[in-house]
Amino acid sequence: MGIDWKAYNTNGFFDELIDGKGNVRLHGKQLAQFFSSLSGEELTKARAVADLAIKEMGISFTVYDEGNMIDRAWPFDIIPRTIGKKEWQGIEVGLKQRVEALNLFIDDLYHDQKIIKDGIFPKGLLEKSVNFRSQCVGINPPNKIWAHICGSDLVRDGSGTMYVLEDNLRVPSGVSYMLENRSVMKRVFPELFEQVSILPVDDYPSQLFDMLAAMSPRPQDKPEVVVLTPGVFNSAYFEHCYLAQEMGCELVEGRDLVVEKDDCVYMRTITGLQRVDVIYRRIDDLFLDPEAFLPDSQLGVPGLMRAWSKGNVALVNAPGAGVADDKVVYAYVPEMIKYYLGEDAKLANVPTFKCMDPKECDHVIKNIDKLVIKPANESGGYGLLIGPKSTKKQQQETIAQIKADPRNWVAQPTLDLSTVPTLDGIEPDGRHADLRPFILSSGKDTQVTTGGLTRVAMVKGSLVVNSSQGGGSKDTWIVDEEAK
Amino acid sequence: MLSRVCETLYWVSRYIERAENVARLINVNNMLIMDLPKGVSTGWEPLIDIIGVRQAYQENHTDFSESKALRYLLVGHDNNSSILNSIISARESARTIRDVIPRDVWEEINSLYYYVKDNQNEGLSKRGRFAYLKKIIESTHMIFGTLDATINHDQGYVFIRFGLMIERADMTSRILDIRSATLITSDEAKPYENIQWISLLRSMSAYQMYRQQMGVRVQRADVIEFIMHSEVFPRSILFCLYELKQLMEPLIHSVELIKLIDEVIQELKNKDVRALKNSDLHDYIDQVQIKLAGLHNELAESYFLKPPEVTE
């Protein structure tokens, strides 16, 4: 008979729904009550309804397995993750502050580099950055915005503090799953939405469109906005389609576009060439334009950088925005906020030791078995060393690498990621989770999604939330605790 | 609208129409076989010919037994025109333009794919077959019906309809060709000739409409006339050609294509198809098919995305 939350064991972790004394947190009260009222049979049925909805709606992601492209159904857990509205408002303010500083930083790096001249950010780091694009130096994107769309990963540690783990400024993905998770939940538990005061999420596509349209180089009523995808083989293809569809824009591939002699971008339509004003590009910098970057890229559009640098088309995010998206630069975000905005950071960074500082480097080497060691510019966990889970030999190898090139390494304490109750059969069990909200900046206006995408490790004890490696997701509710 | 998108819409539509035609063909053949006495039946061989895959079939199959032929037609991996492969192609193409297809239509295509794939044993079993095929046919009607009712009737829609009509005309010509050629005319089968013509009409859902239009008696010349020349039956070749022409009229750059369609229409209209016997009918249908392919080529030339120019 129903879920008994008293029997739920938080195993000493900070749990998003149940506090240390075994009581349900205020923002999750109605949710917990609702789930207690469901029988095991009803839970099983609800899971089946969710799975069917996901299958029929074709919510999928693509993985590669031995050369084959496989379209997998999106793994989804039916117990939502709740956050109180008050806490969320604080996070929202912190994210806006952060993205504002990051945009100022990127613009500074491609112009005067004042932050380097003033000795806040080391010049050597910039020289080593693999995401700095010399092709972008001196270019002025509209409103000085480079990272129009930012997906920041948030995690909560054992004490309940919310930290920013990283900022994704290149082509962050996941927002479509955030939206689809909500529509699946509405199909599965329509009655819940009457009972609980949950803030809506579905305004995102129109906000995104307004932001994109505001970047248009041609002031007119209806700018031509397109979404540029690498194509159906890309793992985020579902999202590219979804966003284009929701915004009513064309979804284009590189071969649909052409840059003409007037340095403007056009798309090939059945009635001839048609001018394009704004490109929401979901292709990495290096593949964007074979004339400027990788010459053998088949995905991009020759001449695109030329058109962009002349201001004839807006690219979102701007090429080169990724320079602020590496693990060493991350460590400087609090300093950046202070430098550009004169404020203290409102959202905490995970404490990060920079090995380029001899004292900090010493600390890292002495405590290597307790820390997570990360190379600056690798993503997807490559080159990462998790101290407590590593062998002496691995530690020695990493120490040698740090000593050889200290600038390329940072270290962070291991975090006890918070858990959320997740169905294992018909019983809830704690699973580690993170949260990725999305921040839209037009230069005039900054908007944060209501909540974001909660990714959850479906395997007990696992910290891997990535969907390609057994991670799943949940609907994320920002709950107004005071609403009656 | 993007050239690539129009081309894809065109193909999605063709694949779905093809799946529907094959489903109907199998269903009707199934019924026909039950009506004919043992030894008179033509079995499943003509169906392999209708979809034009005899050579490929024979590479991997030694005979045209029901189980082998059916598996090949329904879900054969090595048969591009099997129902499953048509639906897979439609779904994969639709996926690349999910942004322009109404959500409900995408979900219907997606569900149809899972249905065809997950219930293939039903289709292969004698008892489950009728319901399986019926569901597929209904689902394709639902897709075209929903499209008609929910998508903007703009340029993209023109290409959806164009793909549908050209595939339909092509399938009609194939069915008529093979069914009339394999019609058994031996003395002992004579009493069953009627049933076979009726079956031909049924495989195009044309039986009821034929009767309304041509009278109650089913005769060879009338059937051929109806299937090729009817101006009111939506699967007749002439009807499809008229719609193709009408579709192209509002589009720009369509002068050449309309001219070409007109030529095909005039030629077909003026042909006394009732008088075509045996190999003459076959040769004539061959010509019609070549002309239909010509219409496709002209369409592609005028509107579809060209392969990238090779830079020297």
From TrEMBL, chain A:
<dbReference type="InterPro" id="IPR051680">
    <property type="entry name" value="ATP-dep_Glu-Cys_Ligase-2"/>
</dbReference>
<dbReference type="InterPro" id="IPR016450">
    <property type="entry name" value="UCP005522"/>
</dbReference>
<feature type="domain" description="Circularly permuted ATP-grasp type 2">
    <location>
        <begin position="80"/>
        <end position="457"/>
    </location>
</feature>
<dbReference type="InterPro" id="IPR025841">
    <property type="entry name" value="CP_ATPgrasp_2"/>
</dbReference>
<protein>
    <submittedName>
        <fullName>Circularly permuted type 2 ATP-grasp protein</fullName>
    </submittedName>
</protein>
<dbReference type="Pfam" id="PF14403">
    <property type="entry name" value="CP_ATPgrasp_2"/>
</dbReference>
From TrEMBL, chain B:
<feature type="domain" description="DUF403">
    <location>
        <begin position="1"/>
        <end position="304"/>
    </location>
</feature>
<protein>
    <submittedName>
        <fullName>Alpha-E domain-containing protein</fullName>
    </submittedName>
</protein>
<dbReference type="InterPro" id="IPR007296">
    <property type="entry name" value="DUF403"/>
</dbReference>
<dbReference type="Pfam" id="PF04168">
    <property type="entry name" value="Alpha-E"/>
</dbReference>
<dbReference type="InterPro" id="IPR051680">
    <property type="entry name" value="ATP-dep_Glu-Cys_Ligase-2"/>
</dbReference>
